[in-house]
Amino acid sequence: MMGHKISTYHVINMKGTEYLRNIYRSSSLSIRPKTKTSKLDTLKTLIKSLGYDPDQILIKEALTTPHRTIINPENNDIDILNRILREMIINEAQKTVKPT
C-alpha cells in the first residue's frame, strides 16, 4: 500500500479496495477534526429538551442580578444554566415521587 514490495502487501491488496474501505470506515478514523460541542451548547440543548428557553432564562437572570463586570461571560452562563437545570431536575423528581 505504501509502495513496499513485501508479501504482506500482496495479501492485503488481494482483499480488494472495498474491504479496505470498510475497515477504514469502521475504525472511525478521519482526516477532519471531530467537532466538539461546548458545555454551554450542551446545557442549552438539555434545557430545550425539557421545554424551556435557555436564552430567556439567561436574560431573566441578567436582569434580576445586580450589575457587575464579568470577566468570562461564557463561564457565568454555564454556572447559571447548571443551577437552573439542577433546580428543574429536582422539581421534576419531586413531582414524580408519590408520598407514601
Low-confidence stretches: none
- Structure annotation, total helices: 5
Helix content: 55-70%
Order of helices and strands: HHHHH
Structural class: mainly alpha
How many distinct beta strands?
A: 0
Shape: elongated
The residue-averaged pLDDT reads: 79
Task: Please describe the structure with a list of short key phrases separated by commas or semicolons.
single chain; 100 residues; mainly alpha
Compose a concise summary of this entry.
This protein is mainly α. It has helices at residues 7-14, 17-26, 39-49, 54-64, 73-96.
Can you give a write-up of this model?
This protein has a domain at 39-96. It is mostly helical. 64% of the residues lie in helices and 0% in strands. Helix 3 (39-49) packs parallel to helix 5 and helix 4 packs across helix 5 (73-96). It is built from five helices and no strands. The protein has helices at residues 7-14, 17-26, 39-49, 54-64, 73-96.
